[in-house]
Amino acid sequence: MRLRRRMRLSLVLTLLVGVLSPLQGAPAAAVTLPTGFQEQVVFNGLTEPTNIEFAPDGRVFVTEKGGRVKVFADLADPTPTVFADLSRNVHNQWDRGLLGLALPPDFPTNPWVYVLYTYDAPPGQTAPVWNDTCGDANNGRCVVTGRLSRLRASGDVMTGTEQVLVQDWCQQYPSHSVGDLRFGADGMLYATAGDGASFSATDYGQLGNPANPCGDPPGGTMTPPGAEGGALRSQDVRTTADPTSLDGAVLRLDPATGAAAAGNPLIGSADLNTRRIVAHGARNPFRFTTRPGTNEVWLGDVGWNSWEEIDRVVDPTGPVTNLGWPCYEGTGRMASYDNANLNLCETLYAGAGQTAPYYTYNHSAPVVSGENCGSGGDAVSGLAFYPGSGGSYPAAYAGALFFADYSRGCIWAMRPSTAGGLPNPANLQAFGQAAAGPVDLAVGPGGELYYVDMAGGTVRRIRYFPGNQPPTAVISATPTSGPAPLTVAFDGTGSTDPDPADAGRLSYEWDFTSDGTVDASTPTTSFRYPANGSYTATLTVTDTLNVSASSTVTIQPGNGAPTAVLDTPGSGTRWRVGETVTFSGHATDPQQGTLPASALSWRLRMQHCESVDNCHTHPVREWSGAASGSFVAPDHEYPSYLELELTATDAQGLANTVVRRLDPDTVDLTFATNPPGLQLSVGAATGIAPFTRTVIVGSTNTVSAPGPQQVGGMPYSLRSWSDGGAATHVITAPAAATTYTATYASSAGVGCGSTPGYTCTTDSGRPWLPADATVLPLTGDDQVTQVALPFPVRLFGQTYADAWVSSNGHLSFVDTIDPAPVNGALPSSSPPNAAVYPFWDDLVVRADSSVRTAVLGTGSDRRFVVEWRNIGLYGSTSARISFEAVFAVDGEIVFGYRDLNTSGRERGDSATIGIENAAGTTALSVSVDQPKLTNGTSMVFRP
Description:
This protein is mainly beta.
């Protein structure tokens, strides 16, 4: 067993869009793959490609984020045809754009191409409204919609007009946009989209001006507990009194009409959108896939604070699946939304809860131990199943689920442990390490894995060579331009071959002018270009089995690169949210002199950092053909900064780029409680006050003071915030350091919660009842033993005669062989159930520890005591705690605690405390992973 620890990190996690120039040449050398595998560039020169689909007739369709669909005749076609240009309708800013693409299984007999994109207009308006240039798309005012359409194919081009099937998905913020499209084995069309909410604040519809611009519910007041907007749109199908939106949901559709498909679980609803939904509660299901031979939907849901999820919708025609967002992230409650005390979450916690993810990985941990993948700024960004048979990969990959993370730049394989079985999270492999920013995965011709590299503008495939592997040609040339005559030094020593027998034994052939003549045959050489012109130099490397690979580079004698100069803003310029920042620049060229404004292009991007040296990129805006302009400084979490990039390109295509870093003005905000030591939420982070956060001046920050809480064994309820705000409210960061204090009042006697069937109160006057009669046979780690109860014990209306006591701090009234060392949220259908959890954690009965029972009192005053005495905490050799559960004849249950020190773990910050019914559908959960316990304070559960 391993000590399970949860990390609370303030981390914005969204799909990250690349900003690099398209790659030139076919070989790809950076990725690390298992032995026998090699990556190859299939297509390049694309502009931010997002999705790939393989047609049965051999054609390959690729979408570009800006709104173009391109088609290649086959995998050898270097020049695509523009099938359709939807850029006038597509809103291409931040994470918005043309993201989804699907072809019917019988294409082109069924001649439709399906697209899913962000429509450049608010609900009820006609695109283009924003023209891709919202001044600050992250201020909550740049409202757009999503659109699902089909385009009729006539050969390699679209014919007729776009047929709109669904237009909905009102989205307020520029991330968590539309997602993916797939056909299921049932012939139905499946679609996903994100919640369209803020990725830096706890958003329940209160943000923007006006607030709740998506009108969900129409005219609703966006204040807790009744708020239903923002991220809560992912739970909208549960609010039947108002129209249903499609944000954060999985849809199953009739591909001919866009209406709900027959057999959908809510097909009888009067609301047309409700009928379409088969799963909901997703944050940003940017990519999904279907398991071959089934209609199972496997989603990659991009997380916020700590967890990336892979979710499984087992039967889209069965009961609707609730994935839990924003009330849950990963398997646990999302604390910032929990602490906002929102009805849509509180009723979810008290009811059936979420369908837990199939697999999660933590933002601060590797997916596979020892892998060469980054961490922080995570974004699960592609999924594809490998065929169960007939593929070209080794048999171990049959039925494997490949999944990718754009931010980490890696692809993993989750392989089944048995033939035909489900992918096993315990059987993970770091398959493609340091990959080129994958945003879509697909298994294509030849049973090979393909991925779309949005940052580099390429489509790549990963081939398996069971025998000899081809080499990779890597060419270096210095200089590549300059006055003629131009002498260029060429170096091919970076070329490699993965086969050990070929190491150091490659042969080299250079053709410097593309005339088919071998001009040199050494690893390094030089060539003198006497006259002006543009030449393609080619290096071909060949291994010992006569397998070759080539690479090229363009040489331009007589042409010198331009020099770009970024005039304003000057170095050291700082900005605040909402400020207008102006910029200007110019460029000169050795041949052309001063370049015109048409030769200049600009990019603004946000670098969002987990730490100083761990950042990821959000594109903000682009300008072309302009010598000057302006932008509104965006709202964003800190640490982050802006990069303004100017590129000058001369008439021959040579370019020079300069980048200016623009740091924000920041301020330290301190959050405190009176008395100190209570819990507060700020944005995605939850902590024990007092604590200080550095934020950008003018930024939007949501704060929550949950209640009631305990400190020093005393319960407290919120009285007021020092700024006069509600328990959950928005703070616009001032310019000067400020302290915000939540004042609490003692609420002794106030309950620690209630649920149908039980109430809970805290009591500091209950005596400790030692259990000295019987020592149970529990020793060491992860043990369970059965005990006969001295009297019938009732729990949630059922009566029990026996109990099973676990060394891990819980007791179940149903037979279980699982000691359950890893705690979780309540209720849960996973065992143990019919249980009480005085301190559910990974515990150890050490030599000086014991678990004991006793029967005290007589008649109606009898008490049955189970005491965990001097119990150890797994991972610590010295820590010891004592706690007990006391059962009364009248049904009262009391949890008592002593010997707790002041550390978080002994107070419960990795433990679950509560009681739960037999079905795992109802529970009174006092705390999960919260340091709420104190010596001498009991929790009393009364039926």
